[in-house]
Amino acid sequence: MVTSALGFAAQADLLNAVEAWQRWLTTEKGASPATIRAYAHDLAGFLSFIADYRERRPGLNDLSSLTLTELRAWLSGRARDGATAATRARAIAGVRNLFRWLDRQGIVHNPHIGVLKAPKLKPPIPRPLTAPDAATLLDEAAALPEAAWIGLRDRALFTLLYGCGLRISEALALNRNDLPPGSATVRVLGKGSKQRQVPVLPAIHAALDAYQAACPLPATPETPLFVGARGDRLNPSVARRQMQVLRQQMGLPDSATPHALRHSFATHLLGGGADLRAIQDLLGHSSLSTTQRYTDVDTEQMMAVYEKAHPRAQK
């Protein structure tokens, strides 16, 4: 279990509860392995702090009796250790998730965790590629690796991210039968196990067809759509590494990541006159406020063009 690997400083009753909570996150909530690891890491630090603060390994009774002062002391300690506001906010989210689960199960009730305030975060503004840079990147991707089929794989993957606005995890979770040749749409399983239908452009099918025709590895309809050199499902780190090499070759900023292709998809649709609600559905955002960040990007780009081009703006 993750608990033993991280060596939680806790008594047996709390360890058993944490294991049950992690099973619930996986089976009921469909949390990703990355989320489970992040929550476990933050919880380990939290329990270690409580153990030092109370000079004993905490159990369930300790979680019930934690004061707001102790909870704030934990956050203050994280800040002194150099944790950013985003890191502290994530830690609160993970610990609060455990407390809420314990409360719903009738195991632990602590009213203070609900009033503990997370640091205010400024939503990051998406950093899309320009349309010419996106087009060049897709062309260059095929020429990067030594093996031609791997280059075609990378171009197909990046074309799918840019053409459908998928998250890298969503694209790499697809199997061949999820996106058969010529299909008009693809069904995507997004965050929170929410499904959505996304249109598939002919250019995406052309890139996928070229990749699949060149791939020398055996395949069935249940085979992962994107595979690594050994035939396993492609690891996201490989795609990010390929993008890193591409952006260095093209002189693009560090913000040019696979996820930036999703941002580019949304921003370029918005610039072309697409409805914000439609973009929300295509991206799978649960809240329109998340999608509205792209209006800030569009306004920022418009003002940059204005200030550069308008004669009165230069005086």
List the helices and strands and how they pair.
Layout (H helix, E strand, L loop, with lengths): L1 H5 L5 H16 L5 H22 L5 H6 L2 H13 L4 H20 L26 H11 L6 H17 L3 H5 L12 E5 L5 E5 L2 H13 L21 H15 L7 H14 L4 H8 L4 H4 L1 H17 L6
Antiparallel strand pairs: 1-2
Organism: Niveispirillum lacus
Keywords: Cell cycle, Cell division, Chromosome partition, Cytoplasm, DNA integration, DNA recombination, DNA-binding
Pfam family, one: Phage_int_SAM_1
Shape: elongated
Element-level helix/strand string: HHHHHHHHHEEHHHHHH
Structural class by SSE content:
mainly alpha
Beta strand %: under 5%
Instruction: Please provide the count of β strands.
Output: 2
CATH structural class of the largest domain: Mainly Alpha
Helix content: 55-70%
Q: Can you tell me the CATH topology of the largest domain?
A: hpI Integrase, Chain A
CATH superfamily of the largest domain: Intergrase catalytic core
How many angstroms separate the termini? Answer: 65 Å
Which segments are poorly predicted (pLDDT under 50) over 5 or more consecutive residues?
1-5
- Rg, please? 23 Å
Largest sheet: 2 strands, antiparallel
The CATH architecture classification of the largest domain is: Orthogonal Bundle
Mean pLDDT: 87
Main location: cytoplasm
Subunit structure: Forms a cyclic heterotetrameric complex composed of two molecules of XerC and two molecules of XerD.
Family: Belongs to the 'phage' integrase family. XerC subfamily.
GO biological process, one term: chromosome segregation
